[in-house]
Design a protein that fits this description.
Number of domains: 2
Low-confidence stretches: none
Number of helices: 2
Distance between the termini: 22 Å
InterPro entries: Glyas_Bleomycin-R_OHBP_Dase (IPR029068), Glyas_Fos-R_dOase_dom (IPR004360), VOC_core (IPR037523)
Mean pLDDT: 93
Pfam families: Glyoxalase
Structural class: alpha+beta
Protein name: Glyoxalase
Length: 138
């Protein structure tokens, strides 16, 4: 059984964060105050805390010829769910850091991936493995 993770991270404000994670990504909203808000992030607990002074420019690392933000989080989705989300994000004209594409095509660990920013500049990656048994393949 996989245990859900908890992640706390800084945001600029509650309302744009609520709209992004709640309305756009479809995350159920949990408890909140004027200083923090919790989300059910694909079965995991995210706690977004208003701390704009903690937001920093992300550094990148080269992966598969792309500049991947070193600091990022996200979810591993089912193959069809990933494609549905990618289409939804394209439909609302999301500005991607890395456009949706298939990484390591034809290799071990082949995956669909995309990167974009939340309204506070936090980098998110959503990925999917056509063969879920390869999530930790070497």
């Amino acid at each position: 059984m996989n245990a859900p993770f908890h992640l706390a991270f800084p945001i600029k404000d509650i309302e744009t964060t609520r709209t992004f994670y709640g309305d756009l990504l479809g995350c159920e909203i949990g408890r909140s105050t004027e200083k923090w808000i919790d989300f059910n992030f694909f079965g995991n607990q995210l706690s977004a805390h208003v701390k704009p002074e903690e937001l920093a420019q992300a550094s990148t690392n080269a992966v598969d010829g792309k500049n991947v933000p070193v600091r990022h989080f996200g979810a591993v989705l089912e193959w069809e769910d990933w494609h549905t989300l990618a289409d939804k994000l394209k439909g609302v004209k999301t500005e991607f850091i890395i456009e949706p594409y298939i990484r390591f095509e034809g290799e071990v660990g082949e995956q669909a991936t995309m990167f974009f920013l939340d309204p506070s500049g936090n980098a998110l990656e959503f990925k999917s493995f056509k063969d879920p048994s390869q999530i930790f393949a070497k």
